[in-house]
Write a structure and sequence with these properties.
about 325 residues; mainly alpha; 16 helices; about 75% helix
Length: about 325
């Protein structure tokens, strides 16, 4: 995201600067799309789709998959929009977030809140009527947890914010499974834990790159309140936990050798890179020279490829069977 100067503050939360009143319709549409944080939604969908294949033992019912992805997208967008509404003050303070619509007043606070609430209601009703009540309940829990527990309670108060706040980002796994089976089982909870343990090192290595931003906004991310060595040590531990749990999925879900081989190879790569970062820190390397964004991008690829293996494995099992 390109950097920009802070948007001018207004005297009222709902006041709209002259510049935003002159915005075109297309600019408003793009602003509301940006308010939904589409790149975050992409990551959530990466974990929703594969678990539906496992739950179905192959290709899930088409319309169940379509409705789950549609209402899951709306659910995540609603949480993201309301997060932008709540965090618009600190978004103005951080270089990484200054161009968010709420920070730039391209969308009024009231507009962001109403947009988020409409999406939340729409996704809940859609899940309840066209998928099932369990998926609807899990979706409501995810939205509420992200807003009330992470954004309002944890984010500005504790360095463990992304550890426990990450639970909301794990919920698509359970929603995808329940959409197909109308129940829950051990397999989706294991994948839930994969995402849970994966989230802190993924987020902290990004936060190390933007540590000054978080410090200026007074958000106590772990890299702000702890040394690089402490942060990277925890990244190593969480990476190990991620890989161990990913391998537990192998026997729990009854996957084939294919998933086991992919999970082992990807896990080895993730752990090696985490240890390399820690070793560089212990050798005295700090700041931008640590190149933590390399691990951040690797962790994205790790999760995506692991869940591709989750998708392919039941299809492969069907062919071999």
């Amino acid at each position: 995201m390109a950097l920009a100067d802070p948007a001018p503050r207004t005297t009222s939360d709902d006041a709209v600067p002259e510049a935003s009143r002159k915005a075109s319709f297309g600019e408003y549409v793009r602003a509301y799309v940006a308010l939904s944080k589409p790149r975050v939604i992409e990551l959530l969908l990466i974990t929703t789709i594969p678990v539906m294949f496992v739950a179905a033992g192959g290709v899930p019912p088409l319309w169940t998959a379509v409705y789950t992805l549609l209402f899951g997208t709306m659910s995540a967008a609603s949480a993201n929009a309301m997060n932008c509404y709540i965090d618009r003050d600190i978004d103005r303070e951080m270089r990484r977030t200054r161009q968010r619509p709420g920070a730039m007043a391209l969308v009024t606070p009231r507009g962001a809140l109403v947009y988020g609430l409409i999406l939340a209601i729409g996704s809940t009703v859609g899940f309840a009527l066209l998928v099932n009540l369990l998926s609807a309940a899990l979706s409501v829990f995810a939205i509420a947890f992200y807003i009330f527990v992470y954004t309002l309670l944890l984010k500005r108060r504790t360095a463990q914010n992304v550890v426990w706040g990450g639970i909301a980002g794990c919920m698509p796994v359970l929603i995808g499974w329940s959409a197909v089976t109308n129940s829950l089982d051990w397999a989706p909870f294991v994948l839930f834990l994969v995402v849970f343990f994966w989230t802190p090192p993924h987020t902290w290595t990004l936060a190390m790159r933007y540590k000054e931003d978080y410090a200026q906004a007074k958000v106590p991310m772990l890299p702000v309140v702890a040394s690089d060595r402490r942060v990277l040590l925890e990244c190593v531990l969480y990476s190990w936990a991620t890989v161990v749990v990913s391998l537990i999925f192998w026997p729990v879900a009854g996957t084939t050798w294919f998933y086991g081989a992919v999970a082992t190879a990807l896990g080895a790569l993730l752990i090696v890179q985490a240890h390399r970062l820690l070793q560089r820190s212990r050798a005295g390397v700090s700041g931008a020279q640590l190149k933590t964004m390399g691990f951040f991008h690797l962790s994205n690829a790790y999760l995506a490829l692991l869940f591709v293996a989750v998708t392919v494995d039941p299809l492969l099992a069907g062919l071999l069977g």
